[in-house]
Amino acid sequence: MSANPIPPLHLYSVPSDPASAEPPPKRERPRTAWTADQLMAADFPEPKWAVPGILAEGVSLLAGPPKVGKSWLSLGLALAVAAGGQAFDSVPVQGGPVLYLALEDTPRRLQTRMGKLLGDQPAPAGLTLVTECPPFPQGGTEAIAQWLDRNPDARMVVIDGFAKMRGQAPQGVSTYDADYVSVGYAKRLADHYGIAVVLVHHVRKAGSDDFLTEVSGTNGIAGAADATLVLKRARGQADGILHVTGRDVDEAEYALNFQPASGAWYLLDGPVSDHTVGDTRAAILRHVRAHPGAKPKDMAGELSHIDIDTIRRTCSRMTEAGQLTKDAGGRYYPDTETRTQGAPEVSALSDCPVTPSDQHEQPGQSELELSGLSGATEAEGTAV
């Protein structure tokens, strides 16, 4: 008779370390009540960043339309963080274990995608990939928590896609409350362990001027999350625009370029407006930013490939569109009211802290202890 087959590895058993027999350290329940003077005197550590300036500890929704490239983006970020490389090929990140729940993919598809993303680079051992996991209410929370207990230095958990982890809505609650509770499972994990949890989700078919309202479901989903990122297709030189807002993340927009050959998303330099307009407008924008107060004849001297009549007409249209401002003397200035220009962190993204000083001594700000996950014997409440 042949030996018993080796049981398949799953979230409860990977990665395993036979040399380590010590149980994970018990996590203290974080304090949740202060007097006003005590709170003002308290010294709290800075949030940990999985991707500085974009993904902080807490729950982040990454939403976008089908086939826009959300899975390529999230897998690329997971590889970068696990290896301690550069996110978007330009943002240095601190390395640490990453759990990637690819619940809509097969192992073969993941292998193919990682092969393109990695190129000649070795695959990081710190990235754990899982293709099946029970929903949050049916044991998924405990499974993820056990992995986090075995990986106390974890930096990020990615759940692609979120709909697979929600489970059945509680009976007798509104749709808003059900959406809020579904994100609450992930938030309890993020707050308790002090990590970034990314929920890959969809957007509505109908577009909107406010990207937050495009997230599929009720406002309870975005309301329960700490940050919302919406990846949208773009025109011009950029292949996508990543809209970001959150409690610990400054509202900003990032122009991204997708490289099909490598499957990687790259961050483009400069404001989004430089990459979402035609070549003529982009050239004029760059010139006016470098030379505020320039007149069309000044631009024509530098932009020799564009005739002066085209420059005049384009500047007039850009003024009507709010991309430039014009004074009484016919001088043009860059628009300073746009969201991108108002967020200096966009151009200084790589200056965000990525040093070990962002580590928490006692991670988490959750008001609730994770029942049965870290030594607690009973639940202290329900996620809200």
Write the layout of secondary structure elements.
Layout: H1 36-41, E1 49-51, E2 55-56, E3 58-64, H2 70-83, E4 86-87, E5 91-92, E6 98-102, H3 107-118, E7 127-130, H4 140-150, E8 156-160, H5 163-166, H6 175-193, E9 196-202, H7 219-224, E10 227-233, E11 240-246, E12 252-259, E13 264-267, H8 279-290, H9 296-302, H10 308-320, E14 324-326, E15 332-334
Parallel strand pairs: 3-9, 3-10, 6-7, 6-8, 8-9
Antiparallel strand pairs: 1-2, 4-5, 10-11, 11-12, 12-13, 14-15
Helix pairs in contact: 2-3, 4-6, 9-10
How would you explain this protein's 3D organization?
- The chain is of the alpha/beta class.
- It has helices at 36-41, 70-83, 107-118, 140-150, 163-166, 175-193, 219-224, 279-290, 296-302, 308-320, and strands at residues 49-51, 55-56, 58-64, 86-87, 91-92, 98-102, 127-130, 156-160, 196-202, 227-233, 240-246, 252-259, 264-267, 324-326, 332-334.
- Strands 7-6-8-9-3-10-11-12-13 form a nine-stranded mixed β-sheet. Strands 1-2 form a two-stranded antiparallel sheet. A two-stranded antiparallel sheet has the order 4-5.
- β1 (49-51) and β2 form a beta hairpin.
- α2 (70-83) packs across α3 (107-118), α4 runs parallel beside α6 (175-193) and α9 (296-302) crosses α10.
- The longest helix is centred in the middle third of the chain and has 19 residues, at 175-193.
- Mean pLDDT is 79; it is low at 1-8, 15-21 and 337-384.
